[in-house]
Amino acid sequence: MAKKRIKLIDICYYRSGDKGDISNIGLMAKTEKAYEIIKREVTPERIKSHFKGWVKGDVIIYPMDNLQSLEIMLYKALGGGATKTLRIDQTGKAMGNALVKMEIEVDESDL
Amino acid sequence: MKKVRVGSGSSGWPDFKDGALDVAQNGDIDYISFDHLAELTMAILQSQYAKDQMRGYIPEVIPLMRGLLPIWKEKDKHFKMCNNGGGANPPECANQVLKIAQELELGGFKIGVITGDTIPLSRVDELRKQGWKFKNADTGEEDIGTVRDRLLAAYAYTGADEIIEAYEQGADLVIGGRLSDNSLYCGNFMHPLGWKFSDEYWDRIGSAVCVGHLLECSSWSAGTCSNLWEEIDYPKGNPGFPIAEMDENGDCIISKTETSGGAIRVQTLKEHLVYEVHDPENYLMPDGICDLTQIKLEQVGKDAVKISRYGDKPRGKPRPENLKFCLAYNDGFIAEEITIVCGPKVFQQAEKAHEFVKRRLDYLGLKPREMLWSLIGWDSLCGPTVGSPPPDYDPPELGIRIAFKCDTEAEARACRTECGHLCWASLGVGAGFTQPPRIRPVFALWPTLIPREAVPLELEIKETK
Asked: I need a labelling partner for B5 at 20 to 30 A (CA). Which of A83, B81, B99, B362 fits?
């Protein structure tokens, strides 16, 4: 089967926010097939490695079948949280943009 | 079937005022709610109130009400309003709104004023003595002891009980302090539909919590901040705010006025349903716990989406026993500065300046607690996920942002001036300077829980003559 490298942005919409030092990313699949792909390929380990040190705590992923979306929580991920962080993006609004640059490998037939 | 139309009026401080006026004028609403507070706002308002007892509320409430009350009069005083703009001083906020009502000769205009969500630090100490530890909900730290000496303010996120009671007593407008954003809406569904905090109603209250979440960020559910931004338009420059028509079964249609821009689509609502909710099966709010995995969205019109039940499970569960409680404490000062590098060789210039700043901090013996170096135009938003710039990439300009956190304001100022501002010295010719923002004190938040019974709220009805 021919494999293809794609970015999450090719198959997902996204929006992110915060609660304290927790970054919260909603990853919305654009199609049913895309939802199956992200449920399988987007794992806590891969997310943590993608953020290269910006996420210091655990990553928890909640699937939402009704919205074909993943609710992703990144702990200790915002440099201390909105009021304490030195980052310009105090509330992690661009964390979703950062996530969807992540590459995954899929079978071409899955797309 | 009984239905109620509830409009969104504000999502923070500030928001588009014309959004609320449009909803009131053209939305055929029965109720409208205004959230004015972000997580930190109460700490700022409490410090204002401590200095001047005429302040401590959200000043924007006044011009907003000046715009709304004439519409309210024109609509035969039909719709009811609810806000949390009282902040740390709901009574004074109410007094100021009453003055406007008096000027407009709105006889018998009633405001329900809710107080008691601000908890004195002495009361926090009493509760600690009784064994309540205030465990940090984010970090898991067991006891508030480590920051007790630096505490500034404490406030509980309260529910819809007193809002409903105020309406029962005839209030046209309810002004509260740290009323939870979500409860401002739950109260507006529960009061007219007669829903109580009991087993028969948790499914419907779950729906109210979900829809409250969709309304509380105003235009964010109606096409702003959307993945669909390229196809969403604002022909007159006025983003629409969402309006929910909820029926007695807890099903609902979200729409907006035809006079506003933006869009209500399944996607624009989905974006908000996944926004800041954390565990979607347990979206905890003071009035109920919503299971957001049991919510179904369907496009039923150009700007109309139906919200109903997705599965067999109830959409809601009984409300939590405890309330969310936030303690704000001092955690030093942040200073920042932006310098803009003009090309060519912007990345090489920035790298040289980075080295210069590190050496200069050493040379002057300055030791900021934290320092962040970021490049606007490269990694300031997405951090290390962007990697290194390709060797042949040389944009015409690049922003250097340097931020320092120090224990004292003087140290923060020294770092910024001596190292942040003067970093231009190591750059090539043509650097652009900016006016740095004020050095800001860090109000850190300690999120925790408090028993409901430890937050006795009071309701007072004020009325124009």
From this structure: B99
